[in-house]
Amino acid sequence: MVNKNTNKDIVYFLFPSVIALSLTLSFSSYSANRFNPAFLADSPDAVTDLSYFEAGNRIKPGDYLLDIVFNHEYLRSENIHFISQDNHVIPCLNRDDYQSLGINIKLFADFEKFSANECIDIEKIIPDSVVNYDIEKQALNIQVPQAALDLKARGYIPPEKWDNGITAGILNYTFSGANSWGNSHNNSYYLNLRSGINIGAWRLRDYSTWNSSNGEKPMEPYQYLSATQYCVIKKPITNW
Asked: Average pLDDT of 176-199?
């Protein structure tokens, strides 16, 4: 009888222990990562806010000078503004920014839901797209499927990114002369002028020559040229 009662006591003792252990394992599996600031400084108040890193982010909101790498190809370096959105830190890139990368935003209607300057999380719009920050290389890596690209020739620059430059004048010249003495005295001079002016998209050019021999001084305009880039047909228009 004694052995019988002892076995029952063991059963009743182990059963609640197993339940408690199961609950502990269940709750611990859903616990979030937490960084203890005490490991970084004696005073937790001296440590910056770590909540962004606890959520799995590798960068805090702010401005950073980064290399832009699109589909494994370096494009340029520029300042990128990062914001917090839905507890995740994302680069603040708008529709024009993504279009300048070569993405055909017309294929995805969700782009139209955002205003011109609104930050867009592209991973929520383009399937299989990936945006990540490389902390070691200080690079912003953006990858999208080939089907999402607006295929252009390598080095293509959209017309809205063209820069007409400043208003300026141009003058190049070549001058030469010769004097000879003998039975007669001969003088000859030659002047070549290449001038022009840039105003907006217009490029005005003039090519003139001046030739003088023994006092004769005719000015001979050789060629006049005006040219501009016309964005609609995207080719030079030249008037001769």
From this structure: 84
